[in-house]
Structure to design on (175 residues):
């Protein structure tokens, strides 16, 4: 079997371009960009720093207006052996920043950091609020692919919280 790998710099450039297209007014283009990022993350974890996924988790929990969902997802479960709180700790990975990330991602420039998984997740979560059924479907698929390819607990928690916001959406009935 032939094992072909995409060079990291090329993958980062493609992810940055797709990230910008996820903000497009054209919902077909935004959905396709989200789906493409999801497919890239399906095979291997995206070579992006995690960023502050906990702040994205807090924002999506506030949007859902449901404290039970946020409590159930944020790791307030107790350890079965000791009965103490079991904090969820995600491993930190050192990944090089994008060379031109501040010009390509104005949202990232405001925060003083390059493109990160937290920004990708935040943008995907914003796509879930759309009234376009196909766009929401592609964002849901992208969340699933990113979580399958990257077993980071914080990423899964943030994605689940964002997906739970669909429970109050009329679009969810069409999915």
């Amino acid at each position: 079997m032939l094992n072909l790998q995409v060079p990291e710099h090329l993958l980062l450039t493609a992810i940055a371009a797709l990230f910008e297209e996820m903000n497009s007014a054209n919902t077909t283009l935004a959905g396709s960009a989200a789906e493409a990022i999801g497919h890239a993350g399906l095979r291997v974890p995206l070579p992006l720093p995690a960023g502050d996924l906990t702040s994205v988790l807090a924002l999506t929990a506030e949007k859902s207006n449901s404290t039970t969902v946020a409590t159930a997802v944020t790791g307030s479960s107790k350890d079965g052996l000791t009965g103490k709180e079991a904090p969820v700790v995600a491993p930190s990975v050192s990944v090089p920043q994008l060379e031109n990330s501040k010009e390509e991602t104005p949202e990232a420039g405001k925060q003083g950091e390059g493109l990160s998984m937290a920004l990708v997740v935040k943008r995907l979560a914003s796509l879930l609020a759309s009234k376009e059924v196909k766009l929401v479907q592609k964002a849901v698929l992208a969340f699933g692919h990113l979580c399958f390819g990257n077993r980071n607990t914080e990423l899964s928690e943030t994605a689940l919280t964002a997906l739970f916001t669909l429970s109050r959406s009329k679009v969810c009935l069409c999915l």
In short: The first helix runs from residue 8 to 21. The chain has ten helices and no strands. Residues 66-113 have pLDDT under 50 and may be disordered.
